[in-house]
Amino acid sequence: MTTEASLVGLVFLPLLAACLLWAVGQRAPWLRLGLVWLSLLAPLALLLAPTLALTTQPVVEVVLAGHAPPLGIGLRLDALSLLMLWLVAVVGAGAGAYASFAEPPGSDAGTRFWPPWLLLMTGLNALFLSADLFNLYVAIELVTLAAVALVAWSGKGAALRAAMRYLLLAMLASLAYLLAVALLYAEHGTLDLYLLTRGVAAGSDTTRIALALLIVSLLLKAAIFPLHIWLPPAHARAPGAVSAVLSALVVKGSVYLVYRIWFWTLEGAQPALVANLLGALGAGAILYGSIAALLQSRLKPLVAYSTVAQLGYLMLVFPMTATVASGALAWKGAIYQLLSHGLAKAALFLAAASLLRGIGSDRLVDLAGASRRFPLSVFAVGLSGISLMGLPPSGGFLAKWLLLEAAWIQRGWVWMAVLLLGSLLASVYMFRALSAMMATPGDDAKAPVGAALPRPVPWQMDVAAVTLALLAVIAGLASAPIFELLNAAAPFPRVESATPITERALP
């Protein structure tokens, strides 16, 4: 299959599968099962050709329907978007496999679950392949609406309230985004992220207002502190597989777009004051999210607030790009954090969901003895914690080491203190959760009051969680190919040139 056909397939295959699942309804369970598994595994195969293509050319562009942008819709692939597509494919396959055993495609519940799930995958792939602000708006809205539907999937009151809060705040962000798009188009006559660079450098008041609206709307959708209020309830009330992709993929899509705007569209015109403000938001997220996670009495809210904290590391890249040396290191550290956190947090949410399913409660006091009853789930929690705490040899360790090195070069002592304190706090709340699971239950231990009835946990669900957690650790051991792509994806000059892919000039 050609590279162009593979990129088109990444967007339209899950979309077609979602439409077919809606059309089939509760009929033909084997057809539904086949469509779901094809949609889960096909992206892993479809990404092979684009990956090989980027070893010989820096960018792959596909024009749809014969009309080139800006009039038509185009797909654009470079090294950064390739990394994000691989993250979507791997986490989508792992979390989707987990969900297929929790909500089988042939069941009544699965009939309602899988179409929005596949629409979510469609929107994510389209987001990472788009370079036009309006096309990106359509992709983000598709992701948001599908995610809201999945959060509300159980139909319980708490889930519906969390989904409604998510929807209202997301729509507020969408209105701000759409207003920014209208202002930019009126001012510059184009919405292409790379063509806008020429006009943005001049920086009229209208352009500055539009860019501010754009970035604030994306920070709200990404749940960056203090705009995070929708995230903990949504993560805590959503099904386990949905929480996994919300944390690993959905919020990362908005952060990815902020990176595109800041480092590409605003190339050479990034205000230092705004960069420091974004870094301060990241520092606040790390400290607030970590302390809030430490104070939780339930496992899923603990993991949800951990997401708030871990997202903060992605914001520290903005003030660390004052020099080429620190900027390159900070860039690598931020993207590696994005990737390794996606794998680790997806695994952690899946493991937490398995414990909730097996025990009937995720209260920490009720998890005593879980290490003996559900050893694979607890093992996945421990492996995920290694990366989240930043312990070697995990991907999280590499990410935080690079960020620390960048802060050292820049003499950013405040950022260094925040990085170290955040890792320490992550160790405390992860060890608190693990110690609760490894505790010995008392002789008078009873079933949790008011908890859901425990259900058996298929071993395949635990395998999915452990696999993603292992990948988060392996990312620290097999980092060379990822760093080659990170070098090619860097938005500023690079200091090393070990292979041809690192020597290519950026478009």
Helical residue percent?
over 70%
What is the strand tally?
Answer: 2
The biggest beta sheet reads: 2 strands, antiparallel
Give the strand line-up of the largest sheet.
1-2
Class by helix and strand content? Answer: mainly alpha
Q: Kindly estimate the percentage of residues that lie in beta strands according to DSSP.
A: under 5%
Mean pLDDT: 86
The radius of gyration over CA amounts to: 22 Å
Distinct helical segment count? 21
Order of helices and strands: HHHEEHHHHHHHHHHHHHHHHHH
The poorly predicted ranges are 494-507
Shape: globular
Distance between the termini: 25 Å
Short description:
The chain has a domain at 278-441 and 453-507. 73% of the residues lie in helices and 2% in strands. The protein has 21 helices and 2 strands.
